[in-house]
Amino acid sequence: MKHDDQFEQRLRRQPPREVPVGWRNEILSAARIAGLRPSTRDPQTSLFSTLIAQLSTFFRPHSLAWAGLAAVWVVILALQLASRDPTAVAARNMRPLSPEMLMVLRQQKLLLAELVERPEPRAAERPKAHPLRPRSDRCHGIFTA
Amino acid sequence: MPLDLERLYDEHASALFAFLLNFTRDENDTRDVLQEIFIKLARQPDLLANACDERPFLLRLAHNAAIDLMRRRGTRSKHHEQFGAEQLATFASTDDPDEAAFRTELSAALGELPADQRAVVHLKLWAGLTFEEIAATLEIPPNTAASRYRYGLDKLRVRLRPLYDEIK
After folding, report:
1. Which domain holds residue B49?
2. Neighbours of A80 (CB within 10 A)
3. Cα dist. B100→A5, A14, B92, B118, B163 in Å?
4. Would you say the ipTM is above 0.90?
5. How close, in Å, is residue B167 to chain A by CA atoms?
6. Is 60 exceeded by the pLDDT of residue B26?
7. pLDDT band at B7 (very low <50, low <70, confident <90, very high)
8. Which CATH number covers residue B13?
9. What is the pLDDT of residues A30-86, one digit of tens each?
10. What is the pLDDT of residue A145?
């Protein structure tokens, strides 16, 4: 234990380096100038820069992972665009129909509607009325048949 | 009442410099953070108004500013521990060759410690703070400060024992 205390005391006795002499004037001049001048950063800029700093702190350590994720999204987007339904594009590019064609289509639609509505619904068959009688009678009828 | 920046610098700059140099292991970063602290004090003279003791308060400012700087550097902070192991003279030079060798080894051994242990060891040994003050400065529980100190000191002891026994 005494040996440990001596070691600790030995460390404590080592004098740390002094501040370089030239720093005093430089640092105090910079501080005085900054103290005279009001802070020029408006709160919005400050908030924005803080946000950017926070985001960069978050993204930078795993930049490769984020770049990989972004590349995957680009590939997914490209595949999505490549496999889009071509009929939708064709329909969008089609020229408008002529009035004659519209008339024919309208007639066909009316005809189809008539065909669909014409058959009258059949009357549902009425369920056969069974005379009410006790179950024992029904069984008896089966055995005697 | 205007803040006496000169007095603050003369009384505390040495301690702040030593802590920052040991913590950041980079003289440029140390200068940037030290200047940032004094600019902050000049812009907000009331900052020290509620501080019971100036030294721990300023060390806390220094620690937080150094952490912010490391975070802003992003990738660099990732390799902070590795940079810590680089050769850097954190102690005063001396004409005694034994002492000079011990200081060089001690500086290198401190660089090999994790930054959180290095900060506690420095504040305890060279800033003379108690564990309670260290805990308040680094915003950690006092028990954590004590255990980090113990682990850090054990590592230094193992690393420096051959040289220490030789020159004792």
Report:
1. 5-167
2. 9
3. 21, 10, 9, 21, 12
4. no
5. 11
6. yes
7. very high
8. 1.10.10.10
9. 998 888 776 555 455 566 767 776 776 666 667 778 888 999 999 999 998 888 776
10. 44
Number of domains in chain B: 1
Contact residues, B window 17-56, toward A, CB-based 8 Å cutoff: 17-18, 21-22, 31, 34-35, 38-39, 41-43, 45
Q: How far is B140 from chain A (nearest CA, A)?
A: 23
Could you tell me which residue, A19 or A6, shows the higher pLDDT? A19
Higher pLDDT, A88 or B117: B117
Q: How far apart (Å, rounded) are the C-alpha atoms in residues B41 and B35? A: 10
Distance CA B137, CA B57 (A): 7
Q: Is A7's CB within 8 Å of B157's CB?
A: yes
Q: Which residues pair with A16 in a beta bridge?
A: B91
Residue A82: both structure tokens together: 């490549």
DSSP structural state of residue B85: T
Which CA distances in Å does B10 have to A22, A28, B13, B35, B38? 13, 11, 6, 14, 12
Residue range B154-159: mean pLDDT, rounded: 92
Q: What is the pLDDT of residue A52?
A: 74
Which helix H or strand E contains A60, and what residues bound it? none
